[in-house]
Structures are given as structure tokens and as C-alpha cells.
Amino acid sequence: MQITDVRVRKITKEGKMKAVVSITLDDEFVVHDIKVIEGEKGLFIAMPSKKATDGEYRDIAHPINSSTRENLQKVILESYEKALEEPEEAI
């Protein structure tokens, strides 16, 4: 499985969420709403989730093993860092 595209939407308002990302896998499958979060130990990703009836949030899509999660996080955070270097688009 290869990540063939990463799209980063930077969040400009203050807060822990820094960006929302969409990734394309093998040019065939897209996962939207992956969040880049600033935590106590640095940046990390949070997979798309929805609120369950018990009030807890559950991932809608997520990697099965830690090596896949680490690879996703590495590629997404590298893309986020590159996006930070790009000038803001005028609206």
C-alpha cells in the first residue's frame, strides 16, 4: 500500500488541531478528515472518528498495526511541515 497523494488544509485559528488531511492510497482509495494535533510530546495524527451513543469517539478508519500507523504518521507530518513553508493563499 502506497500513499500516492496527501492534501493538507492548515488550521489558522488557535488550538491543538493544526491541520486536516486527506490521503489517497494506491491512487484508488481516499481517507478524509485525518487530523494533525499538537500534543504534549509533539505532533501526532488522529484518524477520522465519530461520536458514539455513549459519548466516546470511535475511529471510522484506522491502521491495523503500529508499523502502518507509524508510516502514515511520518508521511502526513512530513507533508504538513512542507505545507507550513508554503505561503498563505490569498482569498
Automatic annotation (TrEMBL):
Keywords: Cell cycle, Cell division, Septation. GO terms for biological process: division septum assembly; sporulation resulting in formation of a cellular spore. The keyword DNA-binding does not apply. Signal peptide: none annotated. It holds the Pfam family SpoVG. SUPFAM superfamilies: SpoVG-like. Could be involved in septation. Belongs to the SpoVG family. This is Putative septation protein SpoVG.
